[in-house]
Every structure is written in C-alpha cells, then in structure tokens.
Design goal:
Blueprint: H1 2-36, H2 45-75, E1 91-94, E2 97-101, E3 106-110, E4 113-118, H3 123-128, E5 136-139, E6 142-149
Parallel strand pairs: 2-4
Antiparallel strand pairs: 1-2, 1-6, 3-4, 5-6
Helix pairs in contact: 1-2
Length: about 150
C-alpha cells in the first residue's frame, strides 16, 4: 500500500511544482512588462502601468509563498510509515470517497481511483485525523464510514 501513498505524494509534489512554476512565470512576465513600459506623454499612464505590474508581481509573490508553504508541509510527510490511525500522509478509504491526508491539492487519480488530497486543517481533514477503520462521522449532512486507513 505504500506504493499508493508514494504515488499520491508524487502527484501532490507535482501540483506544488506547477503552482510554483506558474507564479514564477507570472513574476517574470510582470517584471518584463514593467521594464518595457516606457514613459509617455500621456502623463500618469506610465506610472499606472508600472503600479499595475507591481500589483501583479505582488499577487504572484503571494501565490509563490503559499506554494512554498505547501512544499514545506509536503516535505514533512513520511511516505513509508504505516499506521492504523489516520494522520498526515495516510490514504483513507470511506464510503463517500477516498482521501489523502496531506495538502489541499484537489482530486488525484491513481490506478483508476479518485482520491481527494486534503489538508489536515481542512474540515474533512480534521474529521479524518485520528480515525481508524470502522469509525464514522458526519460532515455537511453526509455520513462517512472509514473503511480502511493506510
């Protein structure tokens, strides 16, 4: 089962890398556009354009910072541990879906099965943490039964 967790981990790492790449590209493009913007006789047009590019750079820097936080959280996960209790790095099968308790990375497909990568701090992550096979809980009017934890 550790192969499943390693594959889920790798998909989360790919998600983070793509987020970081997109943010870095956005920063470079905004800086390039700002540098290419020339002062014109239109008065404040130049300053407005530079301010907009700075806002775009700041937005992308914030996205890069968030992606770095996800990377730090992901790097704390040990993919080779086994536990009967759901904790960070666990793959959890329920009657209402499959989950990977790691970072919020959305839907991941492994071996034809869909898993939702969720943060331990998310509402579903908080409910899953500490559960073992046979445990159940309610969330948003849905009844979840833990079928297995690996």
């Amino acid at each position: 089962m550790s192969d499943l967790k390693k594959e889920l981990y790798n998909l989360c790492a790919e998600y983070v890398r793509k987020s970081m790449d997109a943010a870095e590209l956005g920063i470079k493009e905004a800086q390039k556009a700002s540098n290419e913007d020339t002062k014109s006789s239109a008065g404040d047009k130049y300053e407005t354009g530079r301010a907009m590019m700075q806002q775009e750079t700041n937005r992308n820097l914030a996205q890069l910072n968030e992606a770095n936080k996800l990377l730090v959280a992901l790097n704390r996960i040990n993919t080779s541990f086994t536990s009967d209790k759901a904790e960070t790095g666990s793959a959890i099968i329920t009657n209402n879906g499959n989950f990977y308790l790691a970072i919020s990375a959305g839907s991941l497909m492994v071996n034809g099965k869909n898993y939702f990568a969720v943060s331990p701090a998310s509402p579903i992550g908080l409910k899953l943490t500490g559960k073992i096979a046979g445990d159940d809980f309610m969330l948003n009017g849905k009844h979840y039964i833990i079928e297995s934890v690996s």
